[in-house]
Write a structure and sequence with these properties.
Blueprint lengths: L6 H11 L14 E5 L2 E4 L4 E4 L2 H4 L8 H13 L10 H11 L8 E5 L2 H16 L4 E4 L8 H6 L14 E4 L13 H15 L6 E4 L2 E2 L5 E2 L4 H11 L3 E5 L24 E4 L10 E5 L1 H4 L15 H16 L2 H22 L3 E7 L2 E9 L4 E2 L1 H14 L1 E2 L1 E3 L5 E4 L7 H16 L2
Parallel strand pairs: 3-16, 5-6, 5-7, 7-10, 10-11
Antiparallel strand pairs: 1-2, 2-3, 4-12, 8-9, 11-12, 13-14, 14-15, 14-18, 17-18
The structure holds 4'-deoxy-4'-aminopyridoxal-5'-phosphate.
4'-deoxy-4'-aminopyridoxal-5'-phosphate binds next to helix 5.
Length: 427
Amino acid sequence: PYDGPSADEIMAKRKEFLSPSFFHFYKKPLHVVAGKRQYLFDEEGKRYVDAFGGIATVCCGHCHPDVVDAIVNQTKRLQHSTVLYLNSAIADFAEALASKLPGDLKVVFFTNSGTEANELAIMMARLYTGCHDIISLRNGYHGNAAGTMGATGQSIWKFNVVQSGVHHAMNPDPYRGVFGSEGEMYAKDVQDLIDFGTSGNVAAFISEAIQGVGGIVELAPGYLPAVYGSIKKAGGLCIADEVQSGFARTGSHFWGFETQGVVPDIVTMAKSIGNGIPLGAVVTTPQIAEVLTRRNYFNTFGGNPVCTAAGLAVLKVIEKENLQENALAVGSYLKDRLLVLKDKYEIIGDVRGRGLMLGVELVTDRQLKTPAKAEILHVLDQMKELGVLIGKGGFYGNVFRITPPLCFTKEDADFLVDSMDYIMSKM
Ligand code: PMP
């Protein structure tokens, strides 16, 4: 039983001592005190199916014993900065991570977050190419520091500070984009940006394979191969942001970019990599990695023993528990059930995504695709009352984001869809 401060007491402290920009989804904010596998528990012991996984940060399930043991054991032995002395935790995890990546992608730089990973990737691309121009996608999200905020393609996540050198390409969005699912048509816009907006040479192209914050938008098929071709011709590097779509979440593949059959020059990751522990990484080729030898490069905690011990445990759990196969099986089942729900309710404009990275877009008019902004909040809130937590995103805030821990079961999927069905039937 929980005997700590109440939700109201925490809320009062939060209002007084924490950022005024914090936000939450619910009328009455949820106070979670414990987690186990795909479940969270509030202060009264009520169980919630966590279909958002802390924004896709938890892949093995909350408090997975193997990951917790790895963290606790390493903490008891040693925790320190990464840089000065030899330690096996970072080396073992780097080796294991490199083995999951194709081609020559085998040099790992660890960071503490996704933002840091993308900042480093962008800087390396600029150093390697000697160019400044970055091309990213409208509706993409890459972080909250100067470079990554620049690369982010949504005004709602951008502050009015200097963010130079980024061109935002047309989003290959099969649902809202003008070319539908014709990936190669959208790719022409990237070639146009290179031809008309730059010297003809660029530093990099960065994108997610499935946009997470942007509302689970799976890039139109054929898009990345065409764009990667244009970028390579312009002397640039291709960066795959796998912060959300990586680590087996798509079910069909371990990395999101593999769904489009491309091999990037740099891959960035965070969130699931540590099952909730602050950890990020940049993986690239030995040749590109060389650029960081030009000066001193230092990150006090990036790759520290505790976080990398957790990372190694995560990879082992994904393998041991066949979480990729589970993401595919349960994700496909869940998507099929959501598609049935779409036939039943006009308000569901689109169901999309793969594996356990699914989106449900709500619209008040299917023809005009008018975002159902108020309705989604109602459904979100009611689902919480019934014991299901899902996320929300998209530029208009009208897309459900379903990114549960990868140990999600068919029973959980049924509970989620039945709850949504019940709430929509009452609207
Ligand atoms: N890239 C993507 C695709 C993300 O979804 C996020 C976080 N939502 C980031 C980068 C930034 O990661 P972090 O919040 O750990 O800095």
